[in-house]
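User: Hey, my collaborator sent me this sequence without any context and asked if I could get a structure. I don't really work with proteins. Can you help?
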Amino acid sequence: MRIAKYALVVILFTLLLSGCGKNVTLYKQAKKLYEAGNYEAALTANAQSLLIKADYKKAQELLKNVYPKAIKYRKDNITKIQAKDEPDMWDLLVPEYQGLVNIFDTMADLPRLVHPKTKEVFRYDREDYYPQLKESRTNAAAYHYQKGLDITLQSDEPDIQKQAALEFK
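Assistant: No problem. I've predicted the 3D structure and written it out in structure-token form, which is a compact way to encode the shape of the chain:
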């Protein structure tokens, strides 16, 4: 009986520490990613930490830094791509808009975050990038379809037709 109680206490203590350990590990991983300039991966790891323990002060403070930088990084990329105005820009815009959608989905999954000391509620502006993502996908598909048609008309050679098929795909 005494051994069973001791074993139960050890198991509960281990479970408690493993939960805390994972939270801290995710936060440390997020901090390293943030310092390396990989803001989206940092945001994801930090969000996982906050899902485990929403009132983790260090993770909340990191979120205030990493979230705006992740958004800015994607928006800056979009601006650069649009400024070049190349024919295949839609292919390049799709992952950027998908990244923004993923960032906002990650934020939407978080519980309401209240700073444990200041009781300040973390607020962020949620923007909907689904329309831009849909437009980019549609325009990228139209670009590749037209490119495939152009290649198809060049020659009946099998290699040329394979290139056209890749564009259609």
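In plain terms: The CA atoms of residues 8 and 14 lie 10 Å apart. You can pass these tokens on to your collaborator as they are.
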